[in-house]
Amino acid sequence: MGSVSIPALSSVDHPLSYPKPLEIQRIYFNPNREDKVPHKPSDDLVDGYSPLIIQRTAQDKIQYMYERQRIEDLCNTYAYTLDSTMMDLKVAEDWANLFTDDCVVTYPFGSHHGRLGLANFGMMAESRFKRMLHIATNFTIVFESDDIAHARYACFATHGRSEHDLSEHFMEGGYYYSSFRRVNGDSGDMWKFTNLTLEMIWTLGDSIGLNEPQAQQNTISV
């Protein structure tokens, strides 16, 4: 029996997943187009427009950059907090608090709905390792409204299998497809993940069953 062909990129249900972004890109960079910026219905609005979608003034651009950076910071916080669980599995609750109560999270080994139980779901997979390093980069972030945003960014992850030998590790790379919602908290408004899908593009080494569906069957206490 021959091996199953794996596509270079999967079509994830996300606005920044292949091939959706290419439609706008081809319009924007078309050298024969007089208007380089694709027209949006909201371009015609005089009042009530969102500066996160259309930047008409310097203040709009500052607000856009500020909110965009907050989302990028959230993604980086996700990565470092996940790595920190290798010091204490209870940190997984801090990681889960980056998500909304109605979130949907999908990894190669399975999916989870809702923040309740999310910490345990994540650690059932990751607790097999002794150390981790998650790197998020190449961010593309778009705003759907003042309170909804989407992002695509690359993920490089290294998982150490040994407490004593740093050379024993499993590596993988792919794309995160995430969506976010602005929510109100005790410290003011903040962005949280509503959806996160991890698409693996390549792996290297022994994953100790990380990306296998049965990886989520074990139970741990965090």
From TrEMBL:
Gene3D superfamilies on file: 3.10.450.50
SUPFAM superfamilies (UniProt xref): NTF2-like
Domain of life where this protein originates: Eukaryota
Membrane-spanning intervals of the chain: none
A Pfam family the protein falls into: SnoaL_4
SnoaL-like domain location: 67-196
UniProt protein name: SnoaL-like domain-containing protein
Organism: Exophiala bonariae
